[in-house]
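Ligand: copper (II) ion. Inputs:
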Amino acid sequence: MYLRWLVVTVLVFGAFSCAQGATVSARVARDEGGGNGTRAHENGNVVLWLTPIDSPSMPMLPPAQTSPRTRLVQKNKSFEPHVLVVPVGSLVEFPNRDPFFHNVFSLFEGKRFDLGLYEAGTTRDVHFDKPGVSYIFCNIHPEMSAVVIAVETAYYATSDPRGEITIRDVPAGRYTLRVWYEAALAETLNSMTREVTVSEDNVALGVLRLVSVKVAQSHKNKYGREYDPPAPDSPAYQHP
Ligand SMILES: [Cu+2]
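Predicted complex:
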């Protein structure tokens, strides 16, 4: 029995140590401009992805049916997670785990869809079939927002609150590194795009310093108008 466990353990560790490719890591340090100098800000939700340069047609993804389900959950009148990165072709579920209706939509950039009103405990799917950044809102609750970034690669990661980013199992080759974070100007993000070469060794990209600007928090509803005040008698607008 002991021997069998030993064999299993060796096989499992062997499999992990044979994982293909290098680890690419970075740390982001986001500064908020203005006032008396800068102050450290929340460093999570910064996205890095590596798009292969030499083999753009490389197999990126298992078929949607076999890949794990990806979810953007509606709970407590917010989306969880706030920032979600998926490879192009992914099917994302939008389950409603609140005891009232939501109406999830994305109409301004990226993938455009309107899931309509759907009630507590139900879900809808969206197929992110093109690369791009989609800003997701709810037509009932203006305070709800999320971002889905569809990328043409399997090599991507999102920073944790301390700013650590780790992309694992990256095969050797040349890549275009791109960066996205919500409080950035488009030209800032473009200026951070650069080429990265990965060999067998792990790659430490060092500290990426990000400058945040204030982004407009308000947005229009799905009709392009201001949000209506809640109508208390409508079940769609029921509060918990
Ligand atoms: Cu809602």
